[in-house]
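Open question from group meeting: does this chain pack into something compact, or does most of it stay loose? Before anyone orders reagents, we agreed to write out a predicted structure and look at it together. Recording both the input and the output here so the notebook holds the full record.
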Amino acid sequence: MVVNIRKLPDRYYIMPGNAACPGCPETMGLRYIKMALGDNVVLVIPAGCSSVIQGIAPRSGINFPILNIVFAAAASAASGLKAAFEAQGKDVHVVVWAGDGGTGDIGFQALSGAAERDEDIIYICVDNEAYMNTGIQRSSLTPYGAWTTTTWTGKKEHKKNIPYILISHGVKYVATASVGYPTDFIEKLQRAAKIRGFRYIHLLAPCPIGWRFDPGLTAKVAQLAVQTGLFPLYEYINGVFRLSPIAKKYKDPKKRKPVIEYLKLQGRYKHLLNKPDEVKKIEEYIENLWHLIDALEKTFTAEGGKGEAIYRSL
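Structure tokens returned:
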């Protein structure tokens, strides 16, 4: 499947004058959901930035039907909503749109339960790597070394690997995506929509406010995360794993951009720029991440072209 973005619907899915910050990646990602799936979508949104972006009821700055729900209950609420639609004979895409805190921390129990039950929902983690809406506090998905208001000398732990955890649940579909590569994200949404059961997409969403970069650089920062190897793009479908075409060349360390190019654009890393040992820890993390990718490829690569046949069929 190759998407021509010029042939997709061009409408106001996110209304002008909404409450998002300049350069907000969440408004970008929400547009791509509608472009990929059309109008047959209901969003389930736990507490977070997108709760605020909607504006004040009864009006909304987001052109979706939305169920706003408490932090811990997004996946379980989506499961019930999907069951209600099925009972009425309606085939509706129920999509969770949750931040990293609502996914990897507060909402993880509901996420894991929905995955284990193989609920027929699409769960998207819009990962801006901290609790941005409540003041830029660290989450378990905040990366090593990053400044937040609760890790003001830099976080000391590496980021929790949620996509890998979901693969270990044995679900049908897991993918990573970036707002810097909209076509790749749209293609993955459309593939996920053709599968029944639990589907998970982890969307990197750089936040200009929390990451401390110029709002005009959102797409560039999102692309650099991929180009440095720090955020590999891949898909896992029905037991078959593959790197996304965009990410394949970055398997070779010689073709990756230096991670310092990514770090120096962000104020949250400014305290690391003159500390080579700290930067080296991030470089080592990237290498370890790609060792895991190698292991996933060896474990879940189908023989005899079966893997490519699965992708072509979607």
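Observations to bring back to the group:
The chain has a mean pLDDT of 93.
The CA atoms of residues 19 and 56 lie 10 Å apart.
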